[in-house]
Amino acid sequence: MSDTWDARTEEYSGDVRLAGSHATPVGLRGAEDVFVGPDAVAGTLRLADVEYVFTDVPDGDSDGASQGDGDGVSEKARVATEVTGDLEDGYVEDVDGDVVVSGVDDVFVAHDAAETLDPAGAEQVFHDDAAAPTGSPDGYDATVTGWNHSRDAVDPRDGVAVRGAKNEVTVTDAKHDLTVYVVGWENEVRIEGRGLDVTVFFVGRDNRVSVGPYVSATTASESGFDNALDADPLPPEAVIQTSKEEAHSGTTFGRHRITWQEPAPDKDWCPNCGEGADAVITRRQKDAFFLFGSAIRTYDSGGVSYECERCSRHVAGGVDLSEQERKDALR
Ligand SMILES: [Zn+2]
Question: How far, in Å, from the CA of 174 to the mean position of ligand 1?
Answer without folding.
Answer: 28
